[in-house]
Amino acid sequence: MKVMALDHGAARTGVAVSDVTATLARPLTVVERVDGEPGLARLLAVIADEQPETIVVGLPVSLDGREHAQAARARVFARRLAAATSVPVTTYDERFTTRLAERRGGRAPADARGAAIILEDYLRAREARAASADA
Question: Domain range holding 123?
């Protein structure tokens, strides 16, 4: 099951994808201004190329667990994306991803690395839920 993660931002949105076994996450690209029609069209083209079975949009939650304006924008974007594609869209807590992406470094753009961290966390959590359900 291939999963795509998005690190949504007003200017840039990082994109990462998993392998078909949903084990490994890799930064893919950055799409500019996905809140506008041209940016959304570019993102939908990436989605069509990659053919994920699920899309995870990072939800920026504050350290105390509260949601602020940025989280509200991410939720609006996730709903808009869900309406524009047949792929299921969900949100996932993205606390600390930007800092982790900066610390890890790498050749991929920081926003795409942030999306990869969101995806890694999401895949680990999903695996842990599956393991506890089997126990």
Answer: 3-134
What does pTM read for this prediction? 0.91
For residue 5, give the nearest of 23, 20, 26, 21 by alpha carbon.
26
Spatial contact of 19 and 51, defined as CB atoms under 8 Å apart: no
Q: Which two tokens stand for residue 56?
A: 């995870």
Number of Cβ within 10 Å of residue 132's Cβ equals 8
Q: In the block, which residue shows the tokens 């995806």?
A: 119
Backbone angles phi, psi at 58, to 5 degrees: -65, 135
CATH value at residue 30: 3.30.420.140
Q: What is the pLDDT of residues 77-99, one digit of tens each?
A: 999 999 999 999 999 988 766 66
Provide Rg for the chain, Cα atoms.
14
What would the 3-class secondary structure string for 27-45 be? EEEEEECCCCHHHHHHHHH
Task: Quickly count: other Cβ atoms within 10 Å of residue 47's Cβ.
Answer: 21
- The per-residue pLDDT for range 45-74, each reduced to its tens digit, is 999 999 999 999 999 887 777 788 889 999
pLDDT tens digits for range 100-114: 666 776 788 889 999
